[in-house]
Amino acid sequence: MLSPRSITCLSDLADPLACPRLVIKVGSSLLVDAGGARRDWLAALVGEIAAARVRGQDIIVVSSGAIALGARSLSLEKGGRGSLADAQAAAAVGQIALSGLWAELLRGHGLTAAQLLLTLDDLEDRRRYLNATATLTRLLDAGAVPVINENDSVATAEIRFGDNDRLAARVAQAARASAVLLLSDVDGLYDAHPAVPGARLLPVVHGITAEIRAMASPVSGSGMGSGGMQSKLQAAEIAELAGIALAIGNGTAEAPVARVTGQGVGTLFLPRNDRVGRKAGARKAWLGGRLRLKGGLLVDAGAARALARGSSLLAAGITAIEGEFHRGDAIAIRDPAGQTLAHGLAEYDAADCALLIGRQSADHAELLGYAPRRAVVHRDQLVLL
Q1: Over the stretch 347-361, which tens digit does the pLDDT of each residue have?
Q2: I need a surface site. Which of 67, 90, 201, 346 has the fewest CB within 10 A?
Q3: Burial of 310 (0-12, 13-18, 19+ CB in 10 A)
């Protein structure tokens, strides 16, 4: 059996050897227009999915569109996004139509659709994340095509992904996918707003930097979805941590996957060179990709340098505590400028961390009244971003 090879260009997303498992995210503006579901367009995309299966690729779909479809059925204003209650009601109605359409069209190619509705907690809680991984693995092994959406009918503002771009990246982590393709209404990332004369489409990006973030707009171009380019870059950061390539392509063409992979129109995000060989393990990728943290620790410059060398975080390097958290909670670790360096699992409650700020390990037992642990955040429970 041949060994998988690395993804280096957009055409590799159609190569089963380079990309044996691909997550395709479909935005609301592609699936739904003023007349309802764009059935002909979706049928063509399903044909591309079927072709990918024939050439030996596993495909997972992350599909938006339930709120937009439901809003039309219920005649709700603002596309069903006028309030949380409207969005939940629209999703409850629209998800039935959306899943039925995917199932019908996939069945026409002899493929079985499987619906999964996920909330943020399903992928932020470690046990539930592993359950999702097991379910996805079994479905793919059985030959099904998982079709996934956020469970908007029950998710509240506090427990939402907020957009399916980041959900797609988290699903790719859970499914151990090779790549993610975000189909949207833009060709990819430009070095300036696409409407600006001379704006240039970036074909390949090696890692998300401050310069790359500055190129992104937070606004969804269509006004129908909830994501913009910023959410896509956040998705690319989540994917990068797990060593997963992510591409952005324009889905408005009749055969959007072929346009991206065959014509090379899009932007491919690859891990930075300084991360080659340092791909996070499954647990650390899950931790680094978390979207909800319980608090944070600010550290001094010396501690920041030690973390970069692979050390654990000791109390002596902590300068401040953020929020209320308990032992085992996921927290952020920030440098003196407030930039997030890492995510980690706290070994102490926030109250005990406050007692230990800046103190040497020899003082901990007396301060705490019990035998101290080896670190405030151990390196085995910490991932650099």
Answers
A1: 999 999 999 999 998
A2: 201
A3: exposed
Residues 260 and 319 in one domain: no
pLDDT at position 97? 93
Write the DSSP string, 113-124: EEEEEE-HHHHH
Mean pLDDT rounded to a whole number for the chain = 89
Domain count for the chain: 2
Rg (CA), the chain: 22
8 A C-beta contact, residue 182 and residue 221: no
Q: Is residue 288 part of a domain?
A: no
Sequence-ordered list of residues with C-beta below 8 angstroms from that of 235, at least 6 positions apart, any chain: 165, 166, 168, 169, 180, 182, 246
2 in a domain, yes or no? no
Do 239 and 351 lie in a common domain?
no
What residues contact residue 168 under an 8 Å CB cut-off, 6+ apart? 23, 25, 62, 180, 182, 235
3-state class (DSSP) for residue 227: coil
DSSP secondary structure code for residue 193 in this structure:
-
Same domain, 39 and 163: yes
Q: Which domain holds residue 274?
A: 10-282
Query: Are 258 and 325 members of one domain?
Result: no
Backbone angles phi, psi at 352, to 5 degrees: -70, -35
pTM of the model: 0.85
- Give, in degrees to the nearest 5, the angle at Cα 114 between 108 and 118: 140
76 touches 86 (CB < 8 A): yes
